[in-house]
Design goal:
The chain is an alpha+beta fold and 448 residues long. It has 15 helices and 22 strands. The chain has helices at residues 11-23, 40-44, 63-73, 89-97, 107-112, 116-125, 141-151, 174-192, 249-265, 296-303, 307-315, 394-407, 417-424, 427-431, 438-447, and strands spanning 4-7, 27-33, 47-52, 77-79, 101-102, 155-163, 166-171, 197-201, 207-216, 221-233, 236-242, 269-279, 282-289, 332-339, 341-342, 347-348, 351-352, 355-357, 364-368, 375-376, 383-391, 409-411. Helix 7 (141-151) packs across helix 8 (174-192). 35% of the residues lie in helices and 28% in strands. The chain has three domains: 4-85, Rossmann fold, CATH 3.40.50; 132-201, Dna Ligase, domain 1 (2-Layer Sandwich), CATH 3.30.1490; 207-447, ATP-grasp fold, B domain (D-amino Acid Aminotransferase, Chain A, domain 1, 2-Layer Sandwich). The structure holds adenosine-5'-diphosphate. Adenosine-5'-diphosphate (ADP) is lined by residues 131, 156, 162-166, 168, 200-203, 206, 208, 232, 235, 275, 277, 286-287, 436. It holds the Pfam family Biotin_carb_C. GO terms for molecular function: ATP binding; biotin carboxylase activity; metal ion binding. This is Biotin carboxylase. Keywords: ATP-binding, Biotin, Fatty acid biosynthesis, Fatty acid metabolism, Ligase, Lipid biosynthesis, Lipid metabolism, Magnesium, Metal-binding, Nucleotide-binding.
Length: 448
């Protein structure tokens, strides 16, 4: 087992990894920008190294500085968290070249699931059902219209290099397609430096269902059921739950085994998530994330496992501590993402937190790097905490979430907490009846 690992990230996910490492008797090294000298991950780690200025391109994305920090501190492995360098194949490769272990999949796994077209091709080859659409990239409008007429309108144009919910345009007819195709390409060029786009059938009322997978890199792989992440704003998840209210044990087994078998074939190592849209009993692959997801705690809650611990174990060559048969679902879990944002526009609201009080009690987990007196810097993501609850069933989890939200105090900045209070009062949320469009429609009704 490693003696010391470095966490190439910040915020709550850095704490999450430091905590797992500490329980395993592994020393942790935090890296930070100059803007994060006072951050909780720096305080909580055993050691810390400043790797650059506030801008993340010069700090948290600075591969050379991170590798130097490993060399200075003697860290044997790097956990990338999510975001930043977590799905960067050349970073994984660079670490390998320096004999430092990347706590994640191989550079090759990241590549084959990296850009969205390659990922779709890989998925198809592995027997995973995909959304009908173009074969690869679409270079001109004539081809685009041909594809759209073939699969039928509406269609969605997506950037090959897209991510984080950006670079997508919907078109309901040929006229809209012409505009959408042109703007999608120029926006993709500006945002991702790559103007390649592809076309998919636009599903009308799907749920976002994702399957957690885990492999040991030696051909053993399992699935840990699904998460329903359909409640999204601008294609970004805000509320996630497991198990999915619409998923029966038979559906779970079917899609779960397809994913686990695919991971066995590629000898996948570590945690991964295969994302699907689900409609009328069918699953359609949209992408795979070759890393730990923000919403992983809901899966941990219902299966009683520590996914970060498992990531570290398999990276050290120790194998997984469970088999498929060991993994039995217990109860229901919900996570809400608490952002420092001002409603109704969700504009970022960084600044000084006067008081922070985390909720507690049975079945409540608060993953946050906040503390009273901390100043949330304006340079990074607005996620300031994740509140995760676990109950024996969905109604108990909902009641617990309502109770825990009432205990949470973040004084000094605006947060998305009022959004969740309002959502919990909605019959559709109480009944689990929502799809990927529900939240946008509801927000439009509430705030216009
Ligand atoms: P990103 O990598 O930017 O998150 P995804 O491909 O995972 O992009 O898609 C994000 C979200 O966009 C999905 O959860 C869904 O809400 C919506 N979406 C993507 N593809 C489709 C589609 N074919 N039909 C309808 N909605 C889609």
């Amino acid at each position: 087992m490693f003696e010391k690992i470095l966490i190439a990230n910040r915020g709550e996910i850095a704490l999450r990894v430091i905590r797992a490492a500490r329980e395993m008797g592994i020393k942790s090294v935090a890296v930070h920008s100059t803007a994060d000298s006072d951050a909780m991950h720096v305080r909580m780690a055993d050691e810390s190294v400043c790797i650059g200025p506030a801008s993340s391109t010069e700090s948290y994305l600075n591969k050379a500085a991170i590798i130097s920090a490993c060399e200075i501190t003697g860290a044997q492995a790097v956990h990338p968290g999510y975001g930043f360098l977590s799905e960067n194949a050349s970073f994984a490769q660079a670490l390998e070249d320096h004999d430092i272990t990347f706590i994640g999949p191989s550079a090759e796994h990241i590549r084959i699931m990296g850009d969205k077209i390659t990922a779709k091709e890989t998925a198809k080859e592995l027997g995973i059902p995909v959304v009908p659409g173009s074969e690869g990239g679409v270079a001109d409008f004539e081809t685009a219209i041909g594809v759209a007429e073939g699969i039928g309108f509406p269609v969605i144009i997506k950037a090959t290099a897209g991510g984080g919910g950006r670079g997508m345009k919907v078109a309901k007819n040929a006229a809209e397609l012409e505009v959408a195709f042109r703007t999608a390409r120029s926006e993709a060029k500006a945002a991702f430096g790559n103007d390649e786009v592809y076309i998919e059938k636009y599903l009308q009322k799907p749920r976002h269902i994702e399957i957690q997978v885990f492999g040991d890199g030696k051909g053993n792989a399992v699935h840990l059921g699904e998460r329903d992440c359909s409640l999204q704003r601008r294609h970004q998840k805000v509320f996630e739950e497991a198990p999915g209210p619409a998923i029966t044990p038979a559906l779970r087994d079917r899609i779960g085994m397809i994913c686990a078998n695919a991971m066995k074939k590629i000898r996948y190592i570590g945690a991964g998530t295969v994302e699907f849209l689900y409609e009328d009993g069918e699953f359609y692959f949209i992408e795979m994330n070759t890393r730990l997801q923000v919403e992983h705690p809901v899966t941990e809650a219902i299966f009683g496992v520590d996914l970060v611990r498992e990531q570290i174990r398999v990276a050290a060559g120790l194998g997984m501590s469970f088999t498929q048969d060991d993994l039995q679902i217990n109860g229901h879990s919900i996570e809400v993402r608490i952002n420092a944002e001002r409603l109704p526009n969700f504009s970022p609201c960084p600044g000084r937190v006067r008081t922070f009080h985390a909720p507690g009690g049975l079945g409540v987990r608060m993953d946050s790097a906040l503390y009273g007196g901390y100043s949330i810097p304006p340079y990074y993501d607005s996620l300031i905490g994740k509140l995760i609850v676990h109950g024996r069933d969905r109604p108990e989890a909902l009641a617990r979430l309502r109770r825990a939200l009432g205990e949470l105090i973040v004084d000094g900045v605006d947060t998305t907490v009022p959004l969740f209070h309002a959502l919990l009062a909605e019959p559709d949320i109480q009944n689990g009846e929502y799809n990927i469009h529900w939240l946008e429609r509801w927000l439009a009704e509430q705030f216009g």
